[in-house]
């Protein structure tokens, strides 16, 4: 069983080798060839019909790890740990996943700080927790078992004039994003603005 160090937004590896985000496909294959006695049963997954439209994947089936490479530039963009029972993982030198330690979704979330809520794949019954360049998958029987995320929203309402109209400007602050829209009830007008402040009328 592989014993690997997780470096968020950077790499997964040990003292002998590491899979680093941005590394070329050829370099990853070279590592696999050099350590073929340790890393076995590697699958190469790609689309024969549209090879440039889908990621090229090196699936380390024995270790429960997938390396996803961009189809165009063939550089590593995501490291997915889809079976935590097949690999030992540590962070800052301390194991958070091993045969003796089975982390929960909440523990992984708190340790690395997911930038987005997890995604449940009903067909595969997998809950995916995504970070920048790193993904963990958990087997769940239903969406009801998945953790529920609370989104904190701050609402700011103010008045301003747009041409001859006085409208209400409502700004929603949702964690690190901001959504603005304008409402004029008197004229039945709504102006929706995106992050680039481009507006459309409804």
The number of helical elements comes to 2
Which regions contain 5 or more consecutive residues with pLDDT less than 50? 149-162, 165-202
Query: Could you say how many structural domains there are in total?
Result: 2
Mean pLDDT: 75
Structural class: mainly beta
Q: Helical percent range?
A: under 10%
Beta-strand residue percentage: over 45%
Euclidean distance between termini CA atoms: 58 Å
Find the count of extended strands (DSSP E, 2+ residues).
Answer: 17
Main sheet attributes: strand count, strand direction, barrel closure: 7 strands, mixed
Quick take:
The chain is mainly β. The chain is 9% helix and 46% strand. It folds into two domains: 2-145, no CATH class; 153-201.
Describe the model.
This protein is mostly beta strands. It has two domains: 2-145, no CATH class; 153-201. The chain is built from two helices and 17 strands. The protein has helices at 25-34, 105-112; strands at 2-7, 11-13, 18-20, 42-45, 56-60, 65-69, 76-81, 87-91, 94-97, 119-121, 126-131, 134-139, 153-162, 165-174, 177-184, 189-193, 199-201. The strands form three sheets. A seven-stranded mixed sheet has the order 4-5-6-7-12-11-10, with helices on one face. The protein has a five-stranded mixed sheet with strand order 3-2-1-8-9, with no helix packed on it. The chain has a five-stranded antiparallel sheet with strand order 13-14-15-16-17, with no helix packed on it. β2 and β3 (18-20) form a beta hairpin. Mean pLDDT is 75; it is low at 149-162 and 165-202.
